[in-house]
Amino acid sequence: VKVAIQGERGSFSHQAALELVPRAQVVACARSVEVFDAVDSGRTAAAVIPVENTLAGPVGEHLDLLCERDVFIYGERHLRIEHNLIAVPNGQSKKMQLKAIRQVLSHPVALDQCRNFFRRHRGVASVGFYDTAGAVKYVMANKLADAAAIASRQAAREYGGRILIAGIEDDRQNFTRFFLIKRKGRLPRALRNGKTSLVFSVQNVPGALFKALSVFALRDLDLSKIESRPVRGKPWEYMFFVDVLHGHDEVMDLALAHLKEVAGFVKLLGVYPRGK
Amino acid sequence: VKVAIQGERGSFSHQAALELVPRAQVVACARSVEVFDAVDSGRTAAAVIPVENTLAGPVGEHLDLLCERDVFIYGERHLRIEHNLIAVPNGQSKKMQLKAIRQVLSHPVALDQCRNFFRRHRGVASVGFYDTAGAVKYVMANKLADAAAIASRQAAREYGGRILIAGIEDDRQNFTRFFLIKRKGRLPRALRNGKTSLVFSVQNVPGALFKALSVFALRDLDLSKIESRPVRGKPWEYMFFVDVLHGHDEVMDLALAHLKEVAGFVKLLGVYPRGK
């Protein structure tokens, strides 16, 4: 099964794709729009995209694309972000090899999440790179002896790198949530542990958001998440992305119909089993 | 009056600082924490920070710092983001000079907001830089003849650059909202066109957010904005940042007391006149 991801092979998206679709044949795309194009055009059967990180917050661009494009969410996965120090295998002991490292390459967000490592290794410079897995690819391709990269285990596997230190992230409570998206087909039947994602806008009148949320509260439908996003071309107006801890059934249909009464725009984004 | 900003002199923050504090003596800080430190320690009387952009969304790091640090919002300002193509003055006509430009440096977000320019000028490469104003500084310092930078008018003024083309951004509906922050002092008296910013967390029970918002809806207090942010160390729990179109008075005091009944944590972030 072909699954599109944004970024290099060996990225956290690659790892999430393999967990959501065990036999996934990953298609790496440089930009997020290309990932959505791949699904839209049928070039890949699915895509796996990050939508939220517990330290950094939402991935706004992906929320916007979910709203704009004709795709549907069929699954979610929460991946713990483990950062590893990865170098070119050279036969030495890990301790010896670590002593020779003078610079560490990775995406600036990843570097920032490993501050304790750089505090303990004062002589090591951190160098910003466009992608975590791309940094491993670069260190391996150029056989750099004095450099290492910070990336996922999947990146080490992908490019044959050696993990010198595993889990060098400062905060272990670092998770990213991924969506599995496909072209919209049939709605899944009521799921016992289902979740529904949707987006809506409200009119610019007092209490409008409160009324929209009452649609769920009055039916005892619990929200696990609400996220606002600015509307392009309409400064200071917002869309609201909501996750409801409930699958698709008659109650949800009634709630959606009620929401359409009070909201300006409503789009059902997905119905899927809750991820671990 | 000393006012701290994040980034180089000539940045959009610099421009916003001058609009909020006309005689501001701007103190440029490399990192956002240093901006808050400057206010905390009294090294500067105030700081001006971006909190939201109408295309890119919220500046999460600044919302987190507003929540953590002992500062208070005393003003806001909405600045239209105008991007300008800036080069080293060389006495030629603008048209002639433009023909010699082979690369344009700027922050990746700014480059991405000027795609039409690069579509019209196929031979010009876009080069990512850490800062918009920093790109102007670099082009000027190195007297680059074949390069230009994309940045604010303030950056051209600051470094003596020449604006070859003004307003090259694709979307004119691009605004950034800035806060003026100071050490917390007295609350301003009820403002006719006042605004109140606060942050709260809710317990993880069904309908908790709905109850929290009822505190305002039941008193006809209008929200202009709600933003969720992940809580560090508590994956999938959120803080909610809310702006209320109402200054500080008895009704607001009652609403805040009511909010404390239903929310786990409440912090008043600021009371200030509504920005234009």
Q: Write down the secondary-structure element order of chain A.
A: EHEHEEHEEHEHHEHEHEEEHEEHE
Give the radius of gyration of chain A: 21 Å
Poorly predicted spans of chain A: none
Q: How many DSSP-defined strands of chain A?
A: 15
Quaternary structure type:
homodimer
- Biggest chain contact: A-B, 37 and 37 residues
What is the count of helical runs of chain A? 10
- Structural class based on helices, strands and sheet pairing of chain A: alpha/beta
Keywords:
homodimer; 276 residues; alpha/beta; 6-stranded mixed beta sheet; 5-stranded mixed beta sheet; 15 strands; elongated
Can you walk through the features of this model?
The structure is a homodimer of 276-residue chains. Chain A is of the alpha/beta class. Chain A is 31% helix and 36% strand. Chain A has 10 helices and 15 strands. Chain A has helices spanning 12-20, 32-40, 60-68, 94-100, 108-112, 115-120, 132-141, 153-159, 208-217, 250-262, and strands at residues 2-6, 25-29, 46-53, 57-58, 71-80, 84-87, 103-106, 125-128, 147-151, 162-165, 175-183, 194-202, 223-231, 234-244, 263-273. In chain A, the strands form 3 sheets. In chain A, strands 1, 2, 3, 4, 5 and 11 form a 6-stranded mixed sheet that branches. A 5-stranded mixed sheet of chain A has the order 8-7-9-6-10, with helices on both faces. A 4-stranded antiparallel sheet of chain A has the order 13-14-12-15. In chain A, strand 13 and strand 14 form a beta hairpin. In chain A, helix 9 runs antiparallel to helix 10. The longest helix of chain A has 13 residues, at 250-262. Chain A is elongated and about 65 Å long. The first copy, chain A, starts with a strand and ends with a strand. The model of chain A has no long low-confidence stretch (mean pLDDT 94). Chains A and B meet through strand 4, helix 9, strand 13 and strand 14 of A and strand 4, helix 9, strand 13 and strand 14 of B.
